[in-house]
Fold this protein.
Amino acid sequence: MKKILPVDLARQYKQIEQEVNEAVLEVLSSGKYINGPVVSKFEEDFANYNDVLSTISCASGTDALYLALQSLKIGPGDEVITSSLTFIATGEVITRNGATPVFVDIDAETFNCNIDLVEAAITERTKAIIPVHLYGHAVDMHRVMDIAKRYGLYVIEDCAQATGAKWQGQRVGSFGDLGCFSFFPTKNLGGCGDGGAVTTNNADLAKFIRMLKEHGSVQRYCHEEIGLNSRLDAVQAAILRVKLTYLDQWNENRRSIAQSYHRLLEHIPGIALPQDISGNGHVWNQYTIRVLKGSRDQLKEDLEKKNISSMIYYPIPLHLQPVYRNLGYRLGDIPLSEATANEVLSLPMFPDLSLEEQEKVAQVLKELMI
Ligand SMILES: *Cc1c(COP(=O)(O)O)cnc(C)c1O
């Protein structure tokens, strides 16, 4: 059997090749490559999809988070609470805005931030919480919003891995003040390059972010803020418009793949399987098991030798990253996150992964674990 990739992007493209090609060619012949009608239409589609007032597209998920924090004027002296088990971008944007990230431990069941610990980490300096919907599983947003309301904090959702995910029936990105999405190719809604978006129900914030991402100007060549050049390319917007029409189907496929994985893997000793406690709203950007027996890294290598590629998200929690040495965290400070970083292994997961491939993954895993 051919090598099984963590995500097979070329296979997805094959299925929608004609539609994508037509959409791209239309943009190419329109001559409108920056902003323009396709970008606006995508923003409308994405706002409707997420059931929010506005979408502001931008160049990446990282920029979406950066702009979100900047728009709330979070900066030096402020603290922002987030999970220690996430991609660097979540912390990076806090630091880039001059604020201090405060990392909390995760919840054993979902890999997401432990909400009791979020509340315990609040100080006089806390300005915002960034819940990260890791692997496509929504954080308990009812609890996060309740805490935010009680303490007067902003909530910025990191939805990069969770486009389409729901918490108890409501889409992520529609709970907090701002929702930040990534259209990096491997995300549930991914372009053929970089892209991102901020969603919000707050018209003033939407307007302000739109200004910030256009060099801080409303009127051309008149600049009111130090902003960014952060735009979603028209070509990417055209591709994303096509793909958005497939997203629910693809997320449904991911759900049934997760179910078959569960069935195929549940009796294999020494591994723990991921759960969905969000009310069937998990969109499975990753199917991440925990390896509880033997070495996770060795298992990854052995799988690779059998033509199965897996991934580790993330091998080093943010509080132990070299770049955050100055924050003073030590090994042992955020124990569950640290242990989990040594156990997690994400198996191949994409909407058109075949049952045959899943069976191969399960069979090889079984041989290696018994
Ligand atoms: C991918 C990702 C980002 C950043 O998105 P980019 O589009 O790559 O900049 C931020 N947070 C999380 C959790 C991510 O997975």
The first helix runs from residue 9 to 30.
